[in-house]
Amino acid sequence: MPKSWTDEAIVLRTYNVGETDRFCLLLTEKFGRIAARANGVRRLLSRRGSGLLPLHRVSVVCELHSFGCTIVSASCLDAHARSWENPSAFACAEQGIELLLKLTEEGPPMPRVYRLTSDFLAACSLPHVHCFPPLFTLKLLSILGLCPSLTHSSADHASLDDGEQVVLSRRFGGLVSLADDPAGIRLSVPLVGILRNCQGISFADVPVFSDALLAELTRFVQGLLGSQLGLSLKAPGIRFAMSSAVTPI
Fold it and tell me: Which CATH superfamily is domain 83-244 in?
């Protein structure tokens, strides 16, 4: 990483430091995830403070020092204002950000992850936003190499044919045909179609899922996170509580 550089970034999280500074976790287009400190941005007349907020896509100029990275200047490219205005959209966006923070670390460039996240946040203003978190999860896990194959059998790596009954196998740790594991969890034909084509489904053109299909897809993704990665997210529970007017404990 050069000592001074300019890049696009998505602000994942911010933390107030001292009286006027802000510590930012950024997902950048060229340098992956980084942590940087923005000095003085919380002053009343600071021009950078309004841009360095969670969910914003920004253009930043950063400098690398022996004590860490600092943000010299920042300008907001897209505030994703509609995600802030709509509680459901905001909850969905926060679910994606929480997943990113759990699965990524500082280090390698992740241009595909950046583009995926940018498209996801931009789409959170669309009406059927509730369909996006499980799709984003599947896409992200596939890019990071943390997802079992959705097109080939985990038993023998053979292609899963159209019309074949597919099951989720605990024995093989992925999708297999019913013949390979009769005790596996059977998946509906529409769900298998979504799993096979998830990388080609654009957030801007997601088909409307039935409630039953969306529930099955959500259960599949949650099971994948829990059994394969040992992850549990707070955002889905909070989102459910918000939509049902139940105060989360």
Answer: Recombination protein O, C-terminal domain (1.20.1440.120)
